[in-house]
Amino acid sequence: MKNSIEALNKAFESRVRLGIMSILMVAESVDFGTLKAELKITDGNIASHISALEKLEYINVKKQFIGKKPNTTYIITAKGRKAFTLHIHALEKIIKQTL
After folding, report:
1. Which residues, at least 6 apart from 46, have a Cβ–Cβ distance to it below 8 Å?
2. Which of 3, 11, 55, 85 has its CA 20 to 30 A from that of 17?
3. Residue 51: what are its φ and ψ, rounded to 5°?
């Protein structure tokens, strides 16, 4: 069995990825503009983190047009929800051990 530190998921070490996953855990879906505004980061920065999370199959990216405007929406996958929940539980365990 892994100790608490080993149970942490390296995919969520970045504050941006942690933020993306936190937002997606409570929202059914989030569009690019909302995610960017909530996290206060640049287009390029968010795109690289989204790409990494998508590659791990933790999120799905849905691209569509609303009228003539492109719209990108992000949705957490079951795999992503499970991985993030395990990561949060590991963090909680570490915190409890230090109190």
Report:
1. 16, 20, 32, 35, 36, 39
2. 3
3. -60, -45
* Residues sharing a CB contact under 8 Å with residue 83, sequence separation 6 or more, in sequence order: 9, 11, 12, 56, 58
DSSP state at residue 35: H
CB count, 10 Å around CB of 39? Answer: 18
Q: What is the C-alpha to C-alpha distance for residues 95 and 90, in angstroms, rounded to an integer?
A: 9
Q: How confident is the model over 71-94, as pLDDT tens digits? A: 999 999 999 999 999 999 999 998
Q: Which residue has the tokens 């996953």?
A: 21
Q: Are 84 and 73 in contact (CB under 8 A)?
A: no
- Tell me which DSSP letter residue 74 carries: E
